[in-house]
Amino acid sequence: MSGWEARLGALETQALGGGMQLRHARSFNQRRKGLAGLDGLPAHVGLRIHRCRSIHTFGMRFALDLVWLARDGHVLRVDRDVAPRRQRLCARAASVVEVAAGGAEAFTPRLSAAAT
Questions:
Q1: Most buried residue among 8, 46, 75, 91 by CB atoms closer than 10 A?
Q2: How far apart are CA 93 and CA 15, in angstroms?
């Protein structure tokens, strides 16, 4: 089992179509662990952190694309290629989806479709 599977395997999984999947971090401990310390994340997997308006990438080993979502699930903003040791904030967001850098283009239309 890979590192990301061990970390995210027990989380609720949502199929987005086309082989894409979204893992949901809802509890404090699930949200706190996030993706820090992992070597990477496959292009078909994203982590949605609920009740989240800001993130940091301290402890990250790879860059992320961040897809900020409104309460109704619609995409508010996308931050691309956020390097390790950075902070980002989206005051209007209810959650954020973290995907490996370059993955936002594949996830964003599927997230928008899932919101409707």
A1: 46
A2: 22
User: What's the token pair of residue 2?
Assistant: 């890979």
Tell me which residue of 73, 71, 65 sits closest to 47, measured CA to CA: 65
For 1-52, the pLDDT digits (tens) are: 678 898 898 999 999 989 999 999 999 888 888 898 899 999 999 999 999 9
| 52-97 pLDDT per residue, tens | 999 999 999 999 999 999 999 999 999 999 999 999 999 999 999 9
- Each domain of the chain, given as residue ranges in start order, spans 3-115
* Superfamily of structural domain 3-115: Protein of unknown function DUF192 (2.60.120.1140)
The pTM of this model reads 0.94
Helix or strand run (H / E) with residue 57:
none
CB-based contact 78:107 (threshold 8 Å): no
Q: Is the distance from CB of 21 to CB of 15 less than 8 angstroms?
A: yes
